[in-house]
Amino acid sequence: MSKILTADEVKRHNTRKSVWMVIRNEVYDVTAFIDEHPGGEDPILEAAGQDATIAFEDVGHSEDAKAMLKKYKIGTLAPGEGCCKMRAQIWRSSSPYHRDCTECNASRRGKPCRPGPQPAPSPPAESGTSRWKYAVLALGVAILLGFAYKKYTSG
Ligand code: HEM
């Protein structure tokens, strides 16, 4: 079954014992493919635990090679875990695979991939119970003030 995975989980699988890689936001476990790769084991081991999108596409893999990916797919990166967290490399403006990155500011093309400004987290919506708490507190204060005023005016 396909899982939603984080960049940190992928990065941990970076040795011959277990090789995961990301290609276009999909995560592949290619451990069993190390010895079968027609391009040799080196390119696979070099991409272990990393985003191999550019490496994979730059080689000009055949349609057959692309179809093989299905067999090794184990999951998809969670939203926000792709571009900025996986790709430490420099963006290539000529690469079509980074053009649709929604996590980086497009103007950063050609510069190291870094997260763009994040929207400020919205405060948690006030729950009904906490509104009641304030109302009861205000009522208590009003009653106390009332008593204090009465005592003060009655001498
Ligand atoms: C799961 C991932 C991968 C699969 C399924 C895969 C599959 C294949 C296949 C089937 C070929 C034979 C040629 C072809 O049909 O295109 C091949 C060749 C090759 N692959 Fe991969 N590959 C993968 C990942 C990578 C990565 C990450 C690199 C990194 C650079 C790489 C580099 C190469 C190279 C250099 C060749 C030899 C190309 C040639 O002799 O012309 N592969 N691969």
Summarize the structure in short.
This protein is of the alpha+beta class. It has six helices and five strands.
Kindly describe this structure.
This protein has 155 residues and is α+β, with helices and mostly antiparallel strands. It has two domains: 3-108, Cytochrome b5-like heme/steroid binding domain (Flavocytochrome B2, Chain A, domain 1), CATH 3.10.120.10; 126-155. The protein has six helices and five strands, in the order βαβββαααβαα. It has helices at residues 7-12, 41-46, 53-58, 63-72, 83-86, 128-153, and strands spanning 3-5, 14-15, 18-23, 26-29, 73-77. Strands 1-5-4-3-2 form a five-stranded mixed beta sheet. The longest helix is centred in the C-terminal third of the chain and has 26 residues, at 128-153. The chain is rod-shaped. Residues 88-94 have low confidence and may be disordered. Residues 28, 30, 33, 37-39, 43-44, 47, 52, 55-56, 59, 61-62, 64-65, 68-69, 72 line the site of protoporphyrin IX containing FE.
